[in-house]
């Protein structure tokens, strides 16, 4: 690994010196000064960043280009207050806002495109919001809001809003084209063009990408393959504008899950036979599944399809000046998603050959393993049971946001009605398979040598499958949201302003689940190998069969969210603000399923309630920016709903409190030769206010670091040549709420360089250049952790380098 890291660093350095003597042109643009920036997210209208009483981070298209994030989650790591787990790959990652714990995904924030949700609920099972969004050159900027007015301008977003704003055309025809490759077989093309069809009236923009690569972790197949296209058409008239747009996403991404590691306190090492930086169980030799079903027919699945969403989005936006300082804005969007989700989820950790055989009813040494591929008898040191999880989801969302705005001398008032109808119908088919505990696993068969091949229970597998379709699920959730909101901005003086907002939510949820029974194939007439019946194997003993009994349920929300803030602009460069906000999060999909399929639930089903207080100091100048934002938050009725490897679900409730401070800064020094970007969070999230005697009281909230930050210095060596180093620190956490399993802190380094030659930009970006083994999560699907020894955890990706050429025209 050390040799590989040195090679990657050398490759990056080589480009530095090759470009040192090229001709001079204007330098790679530095960060846009925050003193001039206008923000719209979480505000009633466009507002200068220094005048907004919100904690908001902004990234222009140029800044995103310089960071060249490998995924949307990687970009969001640059936002203070957001603890982001990026180890899942390009998609399927997790974001925790201000210490709010969850089972994962984007449960307490809403991810938006142009002010409307990518999908109404960003934390549906296996449907993380980033599954349906990709960052490409059609993104104009990102505005990331924490806390504050998030609950006023969106549903289920007390943690904040993440708003990706897309490009529109202008009178000048312009565009960008980018070609990118990498050390892991990446070929990617991004194109975006925009201009005027009729000067000053009719504008267009079209952009998108196509990408294929083998993945940083070695899967043996195309780990990522697909792309997206966005297009919009905008007509401007005297009193407003009308815009229509369309997006198509069709992309396949491998989802990476825990692998075995060896832990001794804070020391992490590779498990024998497993490359921690590049290895994965998601490998081509176990990628195909084809098994008979108890209800008839066969179920086939291909792991190479990975997470495969097909997304179609059609939307429109209309603004009109009604006169007398009144204006109306209406945004509407329809989203349709069909997603096939296939992943390898470890069922516990590795076991010795004897341990696994004995646990499956074979006594002593009366066991024999063989390779499914060749039939050769083998004696593996360790074996691994793996969940082969297949989920299909059909989702749609129709949303309309109608706003009426009135401006007066001292401010403005916005009132609106938000309507959203959404539906998610899912089908699960889960099996377990048996493989060698290595990063290029081989499927294994296991038999009991004390029995004959004709004996009942002789084999514990069926072509490597230990549990055939042990879990089927057919369920549906629908939401009908009816929200009224209002927001007031009032300038008491030129420098002192107040903001107040409220949102009344009258939301209705309903759904159903289908009951299941168990069956086997013993009397089906099928054979395991053309000779022996299914009596000879245990693999089919607990197959799941969907019944004809439907469990229908409904649940209503009747809640008021509100916020109050004040902002004092000390001068044109300094400002302070204070904000209180109260919001909520509706129960998530698994919480509904658990509650309405449990005969006697332990806890009532309730929304999660949040209260937040934040103070902020902002200083923005031409050469230096800083934001310091202390915050305090409490949560009630927080539910944990991880689905375990055996198909059961966690059903734990807790209250939490957290206090901390977010830091964000940027400096331009020595006549812009040196740039320094910094963001960080210090916090203390704990379980609190629980029943007397609770084992959780005072424990650190699971998966939440107390300290995490990113610092990135850059040097503009010449007007054209820029180089940077990034340092990302992620503090110690606990995998579980009992604080048994420690997830050690880790540091990750990146480095890169770019050179501007006229309208061409050449860049090289390296990530995790020292091949750090840093784990972002343990195995939340394994139940209670055990501490040191062999653990299951999900590490960040190994070292990789990408090189790109971009043409602006």
Automatic annotation (TrEMBL):
Matching InterPro entries: Beta-barrel_TonB, Beta-barrel_TonB_sf, Plug_dom, Plug_dom_sf, TonB-dep_rcpt-like
Location comes to: Cell outer membrane
Record's bilayer topology term: Multi-pass membrane protein
> What is the name of the protein in this document?
TonB-dependent receptor
Span of the signal peptide: 1-22
Report the principal subcellular site: membrane
Keyword field? Cell outer membrane, Ion transport, Iron, Iron transport, Membrane, Receptor, Signal, TonB box, Transmembrane, Transmembrane beta strand, Transport
């Amino acid at each position: 690994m050390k040799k590989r890291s040195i090679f990657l660093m050398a490759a990056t350095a080589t480009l530095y010196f090759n470009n040192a003597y090229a001709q001079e042109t204007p330098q790679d643009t530095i960060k846009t000064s925050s003193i001039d920036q206008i923000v719209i997210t979480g505000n009633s209208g466009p507002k200068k960043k220094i005048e907004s009483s919100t904690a908001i981070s902004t990234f222009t298209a140029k800044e995103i280009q310089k960071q060249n994030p490998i995924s949307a989650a990687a970009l969001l790591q640059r936002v203070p207050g957001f603890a982001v787990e990026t180890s899942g790959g390009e998609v399927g990652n997790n974001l925790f806002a201000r210490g709010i714990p969850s089972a994962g995904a984007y449960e307490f924030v809403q991810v938006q495109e142009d002010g409307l949700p990518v999908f109404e609920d960003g934390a549906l099972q296996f449907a993380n919001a980033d599954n349906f969004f990709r960052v490409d050159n059609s993104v104009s900027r990102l505005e990331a809001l924490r806390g504050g007015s998030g609950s006023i301008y969106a549903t289920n977003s007390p943690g904040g809003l993440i708003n990706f704003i897309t490009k529109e055309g202008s009178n000048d025809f312009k565009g960008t084209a980018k070609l990118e490759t990498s050390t892991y077989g990446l070929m990617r093309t991004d194109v975006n063009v925009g201009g005027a069809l009729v000067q000053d009236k009719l504008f267009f923009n079209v952009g998108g990408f196509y990408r294929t690569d083998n993945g940083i972790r070695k899967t043996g197949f195309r780990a990522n393959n697909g792309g997206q296209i966005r297009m919009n058409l905008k007509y401007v008239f005297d009193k407003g504008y009308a815009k229509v747009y369309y997006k198509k996403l069709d992309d396949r991404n491998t989802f990476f899950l825990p692998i075995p590691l060896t832990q001794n306190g804070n020391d992490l090492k590779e498990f024998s036979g497993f490359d921690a930086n590049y290895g994965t169980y998601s490998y081509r030799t176990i990628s195909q599944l084809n098994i008979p079903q108890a209800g008839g027919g066969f179920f086939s699945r291909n792991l190479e399809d990975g997470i495969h969403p097909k997304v179609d989005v059609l939307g429109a936006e209309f603004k009109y000046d009604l006169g007398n300082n009144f204006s109306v804005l209406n945004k509407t969007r329809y989203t349709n998603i069909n997603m096939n989700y296939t992943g390898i989820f470890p069922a516990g950790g590795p076991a010795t050959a004897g341990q696994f055989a004995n646990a499956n009813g074979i006594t002593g040494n009366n066991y024999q393993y063989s390779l499914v591929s060749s039939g050769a008898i083998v004696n593996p040191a360790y074996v691994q049971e793996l969940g082969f999880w297949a989920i299909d989801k059909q989702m749609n969302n129709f949303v309309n946001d109608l706003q009426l705005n009135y401006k007066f001398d001292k401010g403005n008032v916005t009132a609106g009605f938000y309507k959203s109808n959404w539906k998610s119908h899912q089908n699960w088919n889960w099996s377990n398979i048996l493989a060698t505990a290595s990063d290029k696993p081989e499927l294994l068969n296991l038999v009991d040598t004390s029995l004959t091949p004709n004996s009942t229970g002789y084999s514990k597998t069926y072509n490597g499958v230990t549990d055939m379709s042990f879990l089927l699920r057919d369920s549906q959730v629908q939401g009908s949201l009816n929200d009224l909101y209002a927001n007031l901005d009032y300038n008491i003086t030129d420098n002192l302003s107040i903001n107040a907002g409220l949102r009344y939510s009258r939301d209705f949820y309903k759904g159903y689940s289908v009951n299941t029974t168990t069956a086997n194939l013993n009397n089906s007439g099928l054979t395991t190998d053309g000779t022996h019946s299914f009596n000879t194997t245990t693999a089919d003993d607990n197959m799941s069969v969907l019944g004809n009994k439907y469990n229908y349920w409904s649940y209503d929300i009747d809640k008021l969210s509100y916020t109050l803030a004040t902002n004092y602009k000390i001068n044109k460069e300094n400002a302070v603000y204070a904000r209180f906000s109260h919001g909520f999060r509706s129960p998530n999909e698994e919480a509904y399923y658990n509650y309405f399929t449990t005969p006697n639930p332990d806890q009532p089903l309730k929304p999660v309630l949040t209260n937040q207080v934040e103070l902020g100091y902002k200083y923005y100048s031409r050469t230096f920016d800083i934001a310091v934002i202390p915050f305090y938050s409490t949560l009630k009725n927080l539910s944990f709903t991880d689905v375990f490897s055996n198909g059961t679900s966690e059903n734990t409730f807790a209250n939490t409190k957290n206090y901390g401070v977010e830091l964000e800064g940027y400096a331009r020094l020595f006549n812009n030769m040196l740039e320094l970007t910094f963001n960080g969070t210090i916090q203390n999230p704990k379980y609190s206010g629980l029943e007397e005697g609770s084992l959780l009281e005072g424990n650190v909230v699971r998966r939440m670091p107390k300290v995490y930050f990113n610092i990135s210095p850059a040097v503009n060596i010449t007007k054209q040549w820029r180089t940077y180093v990034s340092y990302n620190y992620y503090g110690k956490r606990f995998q579980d709420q009992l604080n048994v399993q420690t997830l050690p802190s880790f540091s990750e380094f990146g480095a890169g360089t770019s050179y501007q030659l006229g309208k061409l930009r050449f860049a090289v970006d390296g990530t995790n250049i020292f091949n750090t083994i840093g784990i972002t999560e343990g195995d939340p699907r394994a139940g209670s952790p055990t501490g040191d020894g062999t653990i299951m955890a999900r590490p960040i990706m190994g070292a990789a380098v990408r090189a790109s050429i971009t043409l602006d025209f």
